[in-house]
Design brief:
The complex is a heterodimer of chains A (172) and B (155). Chain A is mostly helical and 172 residues long. Chain A folds into two domains: 3-84, RNA polymerase sigma factor, region 2, helix turn helix motif (Rna Polymerase Sigma Factor, Chain: A), CATH 1.10.1740.10; 88-167, Winged helix-like DNA-binding domain superfamily/Winged helix DNA-binding domain (Arc Repressor Mutant, subunit A), CATH 1.10.10. Chain A is built from ten helices and no strands. Chain B has 155 residues and is mainly α. The model of chain B has no long low-confidence stretch (mean pLDDT 90). Classes of the chains: A mainly alpha (172), B mainly alpha (155). The interface between A and B is medium-sized, with 30 and 26 residues. Chain B: It comes from Micromonospora trifolii. Chain B: The chain crosses the membrane at residues 20-40, 52-72, 84-107, 113-133.
Chain lengths: 172, 155
């Protein structure tokens, strides 16, 4: 069943549809929260689902549920990471040669492990783009920045990730 | 945390009975304070103590109305079906207020045109609210049928 149909059924007030929605999306929400915060946090996950439940009647475009869900999740995570987000964003740095190689070498689990060492903004775009398979425009909408900024953050994130992986001995 | 645990924690706001309860509370508080206010306004030469008693009763009714309104907007939001239920409860509250206002007016042997105007205005608001809720629900039901049809067609 499509997410849009589930969302429409939720908006109608079908309780079983909300249960299906939670069952379908809970793993992604928990994964996002866990990786952004460096560990699971039940309070944040619950806060996200409560906000989803309260916001669903007002969601105008049910077909845009996924970015909307991640916007809510991001807001809850941001509240926890307020200090990290409050720091000024560093100047963009050009890609180092071979920066994308790391992406091809490591598998998802290794990537997830190294993500914890990245700054919050960079970690977030990598998570959304590579692990949650969100398109660039959805990432931009979720993060509230232009697509170009998402691309530059992705580049910086890959470079930082590569350094992190090299530091951990994954260079070979 | 499992999805079942999430749902268990959301059990209270998800409860339809609770949402309808909040609505009923809000409308009862509103109707009661409106009728008490009407009695108060049409009773001439009341002593101070009685005036204070009326004011307290009206305030209590309004407090319940505000609490119910807050609950259905912040704590347990209304979905399309709930909005239709809210629309009918609004009609019921309007009827109760209309009958009450008419009875009070007839007991006083005078029918105030202003009061009649207020009753008719409230009736129009209640009817429009119900109509809007039914239309929103009908649109969502149509969309659900379309999407369900597409899902069946894709199989």
């Amino acid at each position: 069943m499509s997410d849009e149909l589930l969302v429409v059924r939720c908006q109608l007030g079908e309780r079983e549809a909300f249960a299906e929605l939670v069952q379908g999306w809970h793993p992604a929400v928990e994964r996002y929260v866990g990786r952004m915060l460096g560990g699971s946090d039940d309070d944040v996950v619950q806060e996200i689902w409560l906000a989803v439940f309260k916001g669903l009647p007002k969601l105008r475009q049910p077909e845009r549920f996924t970015p909307w869900l991640f916007i809510i999740a991001r807001r809850a995570v941001m509240n926890r990471l307020r200090d990290a987000y409050a720091r000024p964003e560093p100047e963009p740095v050009d890609d180092l040669p071979g920066a994308d190689e790391a992406e091809e070498v490591v598998n998802r689990e290794t990537l997830a492990g190294a993500l914890a060492a990245l700054p919050a903004r960079e970690r977030e775009v990598l998570l959304l783009f590579h692990l949650e398979d969100q398109p660039l425009d959805a990432c931009a909408q979720i993060c509230g920045v232009p697509v170009g900024t998402v691309k530059s953050r992705l580049n910086r994130a890959r470079r930082l990730l590569r350094h992190e992986l090299v530091r951990k001995g994954y260079e070979a | 945390m499992t999805p079942e645990e999430v749902l268990a924690r959301l059990d209270a706001p998800l409860s339809l009975r609770r949402r309808v309860g909040y609505l009923a509370l809000a409308f009862t508080g509103l109707t009661a304070s409106a009728l008490i206010g009407l009695l108060w306004a049409t009773e001439p030469g009341l002593p101070t103590r009685t005036n204070v008693a009326f004011a307290v009763l009206v305030a209590i009714g309004l407090c319940w109305a505000v609490f119910g309104g807050w609950a259905v907007t912040r704590r347990a939001p209304l979905f399309a079906r709930d909005r239709v239920v809210a629309g009918w409860l609004g009609i019921a509250a309007w009827l109760a207020f209309g009958v009450g206002a008419l009875a009070i007016s007839l007991l006083r042997h005078e029918l105030e045109p202003a009061l009649l105007g207020v009753v008719l205005l409230l009736g129009a608001v209640a009817a429009l609210n119900l109509r809007a809720a039914r239309r929103t629900r009908a649109a969502l039901l149509r969309r659900r049928s379309e999407l369900a049809g597409q899902a069946t067609g894709n199989r």
